Amino acid sequence: MKNSQKIIAIVGPTATGKTDLAIKLARVFDGEIISADSRLVYKDFNIGTAKPTADEMSIIKHYMVDIADPVETYTVGEYKRNADACVQDILARGKVPILAGGTGFYIKTLIEGLDIPEVDPDMAFRQEMQEFVQLNGRQALYDKLYALDPITAKNLYINDSFRITRALEVYKVTGKKMSELQTKTPPSFEAIYIGLKAEDRAFLYDRINKRVIKMLDMGLIDEVKLLTEKYGKTVSMLKTLGYREISAYLDGEMNLDSAIELAQQKTRNFAKRQLTWFHANKDIDWRYIDRESQQEICDYAIEKFSSGIK
Asked: What is the dihedral of CA 80, 86, 87, 93, to 10 degrees?
């Protein structure tokens, strides 16, 4: 495959420096960055999502950031279509697309050419499933999908109630399993994967804990207040780590220390789930952020991409 039809995919758990590496590589290759983060698509979710700064986005063009209103539900199918259009546009202009993010299903859908069926949302059914989770727990919802469509269930996190509900919703509307409706169209590009993680899990967890504190110092509480005033308590906000816990603090459900500790704990748990997802992809070339400097990882990625080694 020609060099012009290759993209770089920087993946891995949260707080591993994916955005910084993507910017470094974009400078080297005259590239442009496509976010693969399900939270960055929403406008005004800035501090708690570690969204690239305005300065960073002015230096390197970023796509799939700030494209959806928080009151909307942005689907994986929409992401696949829009991100693929970005890839094709960047390649057509002779630049290098650099995909960077930690939302595994976004990345899988785009790079593997997975076509997601178009089914209108059934809000009453979603409310019914939300009440089911409140009464029975997320595991019970996952088990419901697994009994119906184990192929789809195996590709989802047990805690990903939204996508599990979506798969059940598709079956309710169409009478067919999500796994039966999904098809694959091989993409016109090849992905060179670079994965970032830590050999010492405690090293990563320490970065996550410090990152949550930094977000508080940067004004996360005020951001949650502004989001609530502007959009209300949207599903997108209450599903986002950090925002959900600070919202509970502002509602008087817990003190600030407890909210911080819970946000740290849930983010660490999320990182574990991300690693589980990405470890299933044998094409990822893992680099360890606690053993190599970012520049060393960058130099390695440059050599790998330039040589065309997959």
From this structure: 170
Residues in the chain: 310
Q: What is the CATH number of the domain that holds 106?
A: 3.40.50.300
Domain containing residue 26: 3-117+184-199+278-307
Dump pLDDT digits (tens) for 56-84.
Answer: 999 999 999 999 999 988 888 899 999 99
**pTM higher than 0.85:** yes
Cβ partners under 8 Å of residue 203, min gap 6:
289, 290
Kindly state whether residues 96 and 244 are assigned to the same domain.
no
DSSP symbol at 242:
T
As for how many domains the chain has, the answer is 3
Mind listing the pLDDT tens digit for each residue in 239-297?
Answer: 899 999 999 999 999 999 999 999 999 999 999 999 999 999 999 999 999 999 999 99
**Strand-pair category, 190-197 with 285-288:** parallel
261 contacts 212 by C-beta, under 8 angstroms: no
